[in-house]
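Figure 2 data, in text form.
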Amino acid sequence: MSPDLLSQYLGNVETAIRKLEDVYVEHYEEEILTTNRANLRIRVRFSSGHLLEMSEAFFVESKNLKE
């Protein structure tokens, strides 16, 4: 259960990032630590020059995703 939920969540994030327009993905890193814990780091540069950097740590607990 846990690996599927993690994979689904990470896939949804990647799909959302790919749909962004006028954005260059400078860094995208998925780090799966265990079957129920993962980290995600993303840095995107917009055509306007703005930079957005995100870091997320999350885990699966009782079939729910927690941040």
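Caption note: The chain has a mean pLDDT of 86.
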